[in-house]
Amino acid sequence: MAHTVSNPNARLSARLIPAGAMVPFILVTSLFFLWAMPNNLNDVLIRQFMKSFEVSRFQAGLVQSAFYFGYFLLAAPAALLMRRFGYKSGIIAGLALMGCGCFLFWPAALIGRYSFFLGALFVIASGLSFLETAANPFIAQLGDPEDSARRLNIAQAFNPLGAITGALIGTRFIFSGIELKPDQVAAMQAAHTYAPYLRAETLRVVTPYLAIGTIVFALALVIWRVPFPAVAVESIEGVPGKGGYLELLRYPHYLTAIAAQFMYVGAQVGTWSYFIQYVQDSVHRPEKIAGYFLTGTLAAFGIGRFASAALMRFIHPGKLMGIYSIANICLLAVGVLHPGWIGLWAIFLSSFFMSVMFPTIFALGLEGLAENTKIASSLLVMAIIGGAVLTPLMGIISQKTGSIALAYLVPLGGYIFVLAYAFWGCNLRPRLHARA
C-alpha cells in the first residue's frame, strides 16, 4: 500500500523534489553555482585585458563573443548526445570541457596572446553549453510540472552565489590595483619595464582558472559515481530518437521564448560587462572599488532569485517577470539619462529585477513540449548568444558616442522585449496540425 503524506509541508516538498532525487538535485544545483564563476569572471577579464593587452572596449567585448559563441555552437550537439545517452552524460561531458578550458589559461598566459585566451574561453563555454542544456530541463522536469518554474528558480538561486564568488575572486586575485597614468606608462617604456608589467598583469588570471578547473574535474568524478533518476520526459520518450526540431514550430510560446532569452541574456551580460567601466566613468572610482560594486550588484541578483522563488507561491511566474521588466526599463532609463551616483545605483538595483528572467523564460518556454524537451532546451541555450551580440554592440555605441551610459540603451531594449513575452508571448497556444 502506498504511504500517504499527511503533512502539507511534506507534500509540498514531494511535489518540488521527488523521493530519492535529493542527491542528484543537490549535485545538479551545484552546477548552477559552478558555471556562474567563469561567467562573471568575464566581467573582470574585460577590464583586465583592456589593461594587459591594451585593447579597446570593443575588442575587450570579444571576450563575451568568444564565450557565448561556444554556448551557441555546442548546444545542439549537447542535445543530440543527451537524446542518446541521457542528461547525466551531458553533464559529465560538459564538466570535462569546462575543466580543459580552465587549464588552457596556463599555456595561453605563457604564450601571451589575446587570441589564445579567447580560444580557452570558447572551450569553457562549450562545456557550459552542455551543462546548461542538461541542468535546466533536468531540474524543471524533476517533479510536478506545475512547479517547474519555481523549482528552476530555486536551483538558479545558487547561480548568483557563484557569480558573487567569481566577481570577488577576480577583484581580489586578478585586479592588481595598479592603474598607470600616461606619463607613468611613458616613463616605464623608457626604462624598458612596461612590457614586464603587462606580462605580470596577464599572468594574474592563471591561478583562479587552474583552481576552478581542479574543482570541476573533482565534481565530474562525483557525479559519475552517483545514480541519476529518469525524469518524466525520459520515461515518456521510450526511444532515443523521438521528437524533432520541426515539431517545435507548432509552439509559438516556445519560439517567442527563444527570442526573449536572446534579448534577456544580451541585456544581462551587457549590463554586467560594462558595469565596472560605468562606475569608473560616472563616479571616477578605481578598478578595485568598481569590482566591489560589481560584487554588490551580483548580490542583489542573488537576493532577487531567492525572493522570486518565494513570491511564485502567490504570483504567476509570467506576471512576476512582467512586473520586474517594467522596473528594469525604468531603472535603465535613469542609468542612461543620469550618469553619476543616481544612475549607478539604478543600474545596481536592476540586477535584483533581472534575477527572475532566465529561469522563468526557460521553464515557461518548455511547458507542454513533452518528447521535444531535450532539443527544445538546446535552442534556448543557443539563445544565450545574445550575450555575444549585444555586448560588442554596447562597446561600439560607447566608442562612437564617448558615453558608456548611452550604451545601456541596448539592455533597456532587451527588457522591453522580455516585457512583451511576459504578458503576451508566454500565453500563446500551440498550433494544431493533422496527423496521418
Q: What would your notes on this structure say?
A:
- This protein is mainly alpha-helical and 436 residues long.
- The chain has a single domain (19-228, 249-427), classed as MFS general substrate transporter like domains (Growth Hormone, Chain: A, Up-down Bundle), CATH 1.20.1250.20.
- 77% of the residues lie in helices and 0% in strands.
- The protein contains 23 helices and no strands.
- It has helices spanning 8-16, 22-52, 57-60, 62-85, 87-103, 105-111, 114-141, 148-156, 159-174, 182-190, 194-203, 206-225, 232-237, 252-273, 275-283, 287-311, 317-337, 341-354, 357-366, 373-382, 386-401, 404-407, 409-423.
- Helix 9 (159-174) runs antiparallel to helix 16 (287-311).
- It starts with 7 loop residues before the first helix and ends in a 13-residue tail after the last helix.
- 54% of the residues are buried.
- Mean pLDDT is 86; it is low at 1-6 and 235-241.
Summarize the structure.
The protein is mostly helical and 436 residues long. The chain has helices spanning 8-16, 22-52, 57-60, 62-85, 87-103, 105-111, 114-141, 148-156, 159-174, 182-190, 194-203, 206-225, 232-237, 252-273, 275-283, 287-311, 317-337, 341-354, 357-366, 373-382, 386-401, 404-407, 409-423. Helix content is 77%, strand content 0%.
Properties at a glance:
436 residues, mainly alpha, Growth Hormone, Chain: A, 23 helices, globular, disordered N terminus
Q: Got a strand count?
A: 0
Helix and strand element order: HHHHHHHHHHHHHHHHHHHHHHH
**Separation of the first and last Cα atoms:** 42 Å
Multimeric state: single chain
The major β-sheet equals:
none
| CATH architecture annotation name | Up-down Bundle
State the helix count: 23
**How much of the sequence is in beta strands?**
under 5%
CATH superfamily: MFS general substrate transporter like domains
State the helical fraction.
Answer: over 70%
Low-confidence segments, given as residue ranges, are 1-6, 235-241
CATH class: Mainly Alpha
Q: Output the radius of gyration.
A: 22 Å
User: What is the fold named in CATH at topology level?
Assistant: Growth Hormone, Chain: A
Look at the helices and sheets and give the structural class.
mainly alpha
- Average pLDDT works out at 86
